[in-house]
Specification:
By secondary structure, this protein is mainly α. It has helices spanning 2-18, 27-46, 50-66, 80-90, 95-102, 106-120, 125-134.
């Protein structure tokens, strides 16, 4: 199943490049990919199977590579849970909504978000998402 998802992502990127469009990802398609990536991160965090979690992390990294959002050389390192929370925030989720999606308590989500914002040198939730995207941590 994971191989099929990877194949489809590669095929869609190849097709877009073959059409000669300078921007292979339209804003709408990119937003759908971001949403899928955030959902994948939520599923990864919710699974208790370490082998499956590793495979899902690999798929997430593959998605990032396909769209060309490789992390810049940066010292910013978010933990997997901090990244999960920022990904949910990027979809417009409140702390309570992110908590439900990630099977966490709202206070825990708030703590992860605060830590991520500190690492990203962001003062607002929006800034945290923008900085994470610029660093290639989110698609």
């Amino acid at each position: 199943m994971l191989a099929e998802v990877e194949r489809r992502l590669v095929d869609s990127q190849s097709q877009a490049m073959a059409t000669g469009s300078g921007q292979p990802w339209s804003p709408a398609r990119l937003e759908r990919l971001r949403s899928a990536h955030a959902e994948l991160r939520a599923i990864t965090g919710a699974t208790g199977d370490p082998e499956l979690r590793q495979r899902l992390h690999h798929l997430s990294a593959t998605m990032m590579g396909i769209i060309g959002d490789q992390p810049e050389s940066s010292v910013v390192q978010l933990s997997p849970r901090e990244l999960d929370v920022v990904a949910q925030v990027s979809l417009g989720c409140s702390n309570a909504e992110a908590a439900v999606r990630l099977s966490l308590r709202p206070e825990t989500v708030k703590a992860y978000l605060r830590s991520a914002m500190r690492k990203l040198d962001a003062h607002t939730r929006f800034e945290a998402v923008v900085h994470a995207r610029r660093l290639g941590l989110l698609p």
